[in-house]
Amino acid sequence: MYYFYFDASALVKRYTRESGSDKMLFLFSNIPLARLSCLTIGAMEVFWICVRKQNDGRITNHQFERTITLLRGEVINTQSDFKTISVPDSLVWNSMD
Asked: Angle at Cα 42 formed by Cα 28 and Cα 34, nearest 5°?
């Protein structure tokens, strides 16, 4: 059984069309959400990437609303099976050693 971890640059491909989106759509269509994960901060990064794309016109307001609704339902919603992983600041800082 495989589990998949996504950083923000990979996960955003699920929610906006760019190179690699087809692979993310395939994974989300064929793998249970319980086997997909990202860092909590990564989910927030995806949100802000979408905000930037809306602000600079790469996606419309309607696309933004639809995208954020899907992101909230699949990833951010605590009732979702998608796993978000919290990392304490101390682990982040200690990883630099």
From this structure: 35
> What are the pLDDT digits (tens) for 56-82?
999 999 999 999 999 999 999 989 999
Q: Kindly list the strands in the beta sheet with 36-39, ordered across the sheet, starting from the edge strand earlier in the chain.
A: 4-6, 36-39, 83-85
CA distances from 90 to 2, 40, 86, 93, 96 (A): 29, 16, 12, 5, 10
Bridge partners of 84, per DSSP, are 38
**Local structure of 97: helix, strand or coil:** coil
CA angle 50, 47, 95 (to 5 degrees): 125
Residues of the chain with pLDDT under 70: none
